[in-house]
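REQUEST FORM: STRUCTURE PREDICTION
Request ID: SP-0412
Submitted by: Lab K.M.
Chain count: 1
Length (residues): 576
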Amino acid sequence: MLDCIIKGGTVIDGTGQPGVRCDVGIRDGKVAALGKITESARNVIDADGLIVAPGFIDVHTHYDAQIMWDPAATPSSLHGVTTIIGGNCGFTIAPVTEKSFDYVMRMLSRVEGLPVESLETGLDLRWKTFKDWLALLDGNVSINTAFLVGHSTIRRLVMGEQWQDKASPEQIKQMSTIVAESVRGGAFGFSSSWAEAHADHHGDEVPSRYADKAELVALAGTLRPFPGTVLEFIPTITPVFPDKAADVMAEMSAAAQRFLNWNLLQVGPGQDKETNKSRLGASDRAAKQGGEVVALTLPVPQQLRLNLLNPPLSFNHLPTWRETLALPVKERTAAFKDPDTRRRMAEDVAGDVKRIAHSFAEMTVESLASPKLQHLAGRLISDIAKERKCTALEAFLDIAVEDDLQTGFRTPRGSDDAESWKLRAEYWRDPRVIIGGSDAGAHLDVSASFCFATEFIGPIVRDRKLITLEEAIHQMTDRPARRFGLKGRGRIVDGYQADIVIFDAATVNNDKIVIRGDLPAGGSRLYADAIGIKKVLVNGVVIVDDGKLTGATPGTVLRSGRDTVTTGRAAAQAAE
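STATUS: Completed
RESULT:
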């Protein structure tokens, strides 16, 4: 007897092949039969008129903290995601000591947009090593989870209060030992960041940004003896990669003999076809040096929601902004009123050669706390500035101050013209690019990229017709599974794990983005339900039923080596 049969759906198996109407039989958490199934089963799911596909794999998340109080990693699981990879950008909650944990927690609060009160309430520090932390998750997660070990966390652990110094050979050796211990304990690999936007709660650069190339290459090389591991790195946020950014990724990958993925290749202001040639050129450069570098790209345009009470990372590369946003709220508000500070903030924006800072004139006032300011809701900053006879930046700051910094502003949606969409489609198919970069679990009050999967297989595929549904599913299932070496996942084929999403192709989409106050200690976050996702199964068990969590926790805490194989250039060389 089978445990479950999914009957009558159109199975798109993840390989890119056309969908086929057939049944799927599941036994012991795996796909056990495909075709017209007559065998009996304990549970039968009617999928007539629906698509049956492998669960989506989100390779760049920050669910490290949230998974401790939210086993389903919502809302990602509601949108069909069955496997997540976290621990990116050098930020992890393990390994730690009692001395390093407070800094790590507050650093995470700043760079990942998590309320510190939620972290203080939701994390109880029952672990020190990476192995011990993963053990706490075993049997307590609804979806499959994997985590890299983060450089900033390790550097702060080893170097203590001197983490802004150049690491000595002995300190690099200690960090390498911890990386190796973490990988033996199940870490998927190693992550780090040189991104200019990554600043801690003091406004200082995060620990990994003080590391030189020699330190990064040494730590990356620690992975070489460990099969099934990967590297992740944020080299810069500049539109054109400097030579040192491309070189360090190539050398890290070559030293580890593992592929390295970097975040984020986008289409929009500052990232057009010409500037992205430089970024993608890092892959070609790495190949010549014996490395393997792949870019992550979101298939949807980004749109941010931001306020100055819980400031985003978007302005951290601008000195005056970074210093001001790190101030306590009372002092921050006073600084925003100060003419000299405003002048220097304006100079920072005017001199932003990286073209990263937002266009204030194009922002919309999305929400306000003060009843007296409600008449501004839904209006463009440029129009308000004209009425007030001031610049857009001045209007932006004035409104925020008048609203006790609680105003929610919305940036314009990324490039939405036909040419930009054509370019995105080129990147989806480029072997130097893989779909990812949602940052789900971070930037909780800023970004709703967690729902990229349903927007991609919904309106983008359905309305724009730039890619077939079969190819879109392949890009979010089998391709990342093979690229990251996940054993037995990413396809609906005999013997593979039954990670499956069942959805209505005619209606699948994201629901309205709202603010929910459901974090520990009453913290809030952006949230969106899914439309058209009927059921989500992980290892053969239903975890989402018609948009609702079932409470089941069948997810596997994936560990490198045990649940992965080495892929790419290193695997090919080993086979020769």
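NOTES: The radius of gyration is 23 Å.
Reviewed by: T.R.
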